[in-house]
Amino acid sequence: MPISDEDGDGTRSVRAGLPDAVAYEPTLPGPVFAAHFHLPGEPTGPYAYGRDDNPTWTHLERAIGELEAPGGTPDGPPHTTVFASGMAAISAVLLSQAKAGDTVVLPDDGYQALPLVREQLEAYGVAVRTAPTAGDAQLAELAGAKLLWIESPSNPGLDVCDIRRLVDAAHEAGALVAVDNTLATPLGQRPLDLGADFSVASGTKGLTGHGDILLGYVTSRNADLAASVRRWRKVVGAIPGPMEAWLAHRSLATLQLRADRQGASALALATAIRSHPCVTDLRYPGLPEDPSYAVASRQMRRYGCVVSFTLPDKACAERFLAGLRLVDDATSFGGVRSTAERRGRWGGDAVPEGFIRFSVGAEDPDDLIVDVLRALDAASS
Ligand SMILES: *Cc1c(COP(=O)(O)O)cnc(C)c1O
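A: This is the predicted complex of the input protein with pyridoxal-5'-phosphate.
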């Protein structure tokens, strides 16, 4: 039986995208490895060639659609297209929608590869304007725009904008709106319910949560927009492997457990370290005194697992990272194993040298807090 919109997030996570029960078949059918499918006569039917469609994607796309857009559309389920990575999904939206002469508005504090996308758009004759996420500053750039790109909470700064307000203004100005929902996951925020035309995400992070696959997706309630994104996937062939798609679907079953556990631990960690003498500018959107909290608490249902803060300098940040026992020094976020990194080592984000992006995993929160406080003390002494 399909899940109902009245079911809770745990129920919806474990059952998302499952096909109807068939006697003697598995609950979630295994990955289908196929470059081509039997195709007698005219090329009709859902599965013909492996770059265009695959039954393992179909199950995963249904699952993500049920989580991103409960209730679907008046005509049926929402439209989700899975991709090889988050960047494949982001590029698919921007490069399928924007044409030479159009204007696109991006955040200036978004994911570190967005400036590369900007260069590509400009090389194709698309004008790009940027503004910060905080304070809904993108509002001032909307006149004449074709598409507004929102990232909220922003990565790695954790600023939040009022998505509904920006969507209303963008639509008024005739612009489409896409929201990068990577950090929140569909259990933390549902951009399509806030009016956005596309919810786009990297499934590499919290959605799948084990740090072992790359994946991306785009969900829309608009069939024509979705078809142009799907066409773009066919053109560039940025498809996920069936094994990755199946692993992602398997991981979705624990999304609510992970999001609740990791979010609660992130709040506990933020609370425990915010007054440590060497910690400044600590950010977590779920912390009531955080600048993002007022807007976040209106539009988000969970605040994610990323906490950011600044240590006095590069050397102190490196001592802190080296002193952690339970936390891997690694990029990315959202996994069940805590990771942290000195974000300035990449050179792409406008952050201080001592800036730490910390992704809280599923360890026992007390173990983690003891470890982090001990490493902070050691780094500052
Ligand atoms: C990681 C990330 C991406 C890119 O996703 P990949 O799967 O690494 O291609 C895009 N947006 C945000 C906010 C991210 O954190």
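The chain has a mean pLDDT of 97. Residues 9-252 form a domain with the Aspartate Aminotransferase; domain 2 fold (CATH 3.40.640.10).
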